Amino acid sequence: MPVFTPGDDPGADFPMLLQRSGYGPVNLPPGSTIESPHATTCVAVRYDNGVVMAGDRRATSGHLISHRTMEKVVQADLHSGVAIAGAAGPAVDMIRLFQVQLEYYEKVQGSALSLEGKANQLASMVRANIPGAMQGMGVVPIFAGYDIRRSVGRLWAYDMLGGRYEERDHVATGSGSLHASTVMKVGYRSNLTRDEAVELVARSLWEAADSDSATGGPDMVRGIFPVVATIDSDGWMLVADNELADRYRTIISQVEGSTS
User: Fold this and answer.
1) Is it the case that residue 26 has pLDDT exceeding 50?
2) Known catalytic residue: 69?
3) Catalytically annotated residue among 5, 40, 182, 250
4) What is this structure's pTM?
């Protein structure tokens, strides 16, 4: 077993202990990290007929904005979607494989996997990425969809070790999740309408971008807005950019009015 002096103790950082001892998957110098594009803030909230998912468009590499138009909220199948935060490369590959697995299951079995089965399948894929997570390449998704059997929208959050946790009303992940979840916690109420839920996630991402440098706000000059989608009994549907532009103009006018 390795022995460290008191001044050289790695403490409770287990990945660092493995790296320092030569047992880790990558023996990085102490204090160094793998610089790769990371996706940031995503949110989801239930409303009376389904769920709304949303994510900002910014990807960062350290302090550098590496991408301004990344799509972090993607359709998994007709009645479900995934929002990704964490290392962008592994996350994108994971979601593509997840989409293929769901399609393959439906073709072979003749019916779609249950919504909870889809959540379990995604959890196993996140768990398989533990070696990458220990190298700083973790993936922390949100899974949401409309449960046809129960006729209700459902949400799941995950941790980097594949832990799966169903959330009752709303969920957020990524670097701006603290600020986004606070807005949703204050603004959420039961039986939200579709428009109210879209307004809530738009405002939560605005506040996250205002406080977290890794979260991108609406870019009115370039016409870049968060990806927002609704999932209900009719399936997946993206919210149009012109609707989001109107909503963010309203938010901007409200902010300007409160500061004047």
Assistant:
1) no
2) no
3) 40
4) 0.84
